[in-house]
Amino acid sequence: MNFLDLFAGIGGFRLGMEMAGHEPVGYVEFDKFARRSYQAMYDTKGEWTKHDITTVTDDDIRQLGNKRRVDVITGGFPCQAFSIAGKRKGFDDTRGTLFFEIARFANILRPRYLFLENVKGLFSHDNGDTFETILRTLDELGYDCEWDLLNSKDFGVPQNRERVFIIGHLRGAS
Questions:
Q1: pLDDT above 60 for 118
Q2: Angle at 34 (CA atoms; ends 62, 138), nearest 5 degrees
C-alpha cells in the first residue's frame, strides 16, 4: 500500500510502514531539524513534500492524489495541546487544531486507512470531549475507528511511553 506521512517527525511511522513493505508517496514536516533528519535517514528523492501543512491547498492535495494513489495516511499530530506536561489548551491552541488538517487530507484523498498517534492525555482532555470530537469528525468523513493505548515498554523498547493509536477504516472500502 502507498502511504502519506503527515507530521512526519523523524520518520517513526515511515520506518514501520516501510519495514512492513509499504511505499511512501510523500511527507509533511514543519520542524527544520526533524526534516533534515528525515531526509538523511530515508531516500525521499522524488517524493511529494511540504513544510507547513497549513499552507497546503486543497488543489495541492488533489494533485498529489491524481499522481499517486494514497491508501494510508499516517500522522502523529502535535500533542502539546493535549499532554498533561503542557498547558492542555486543546483546540484553543493552534497546535491542537492541526488534527483537522489530517481530516482535510482524508476528506480529499479518501485513503482506505488512517493510522494516527497521540499522547495518553488525548483520552482525558476536556473530560473526553476532545477525543469524542476527533472520533465524530472521522465518523462524519466515513471512517469507522478503533483505538488503543499502547506502551512502548511492552514491545521491547527500553522506554515507558504510553501513546494512543487510532486506526480509521474507510466504510465501504475493500
A1: yes
A2: 40
Residues 6+ apart with CB under 8 A from 43: none
Task: Identify the pLDDT of residue 116.
Answer: 95
pLDDT (tens digit per residue) in 62-89: 999 999 999 999 998 755 555 555 555 5
The helix or strand, by DSSP H or E, that contains position 34, with its residue range, turns out to be: helix 32-41
pLDDT in tens, 126-162: 788 889 999 999 999 999 999 999 999 999 989 998 8
Residues 6+ apart with CB under 8 A from 122: 79, 82, 130, 131, 134, 164
Indicate which residues carry an active-site annotation.
79
According to DSSP, residue 1 is labeled -
Pairwise CA distance, residues 115 & 123, whole Å: 17
d(CA 105, CA 58): 8
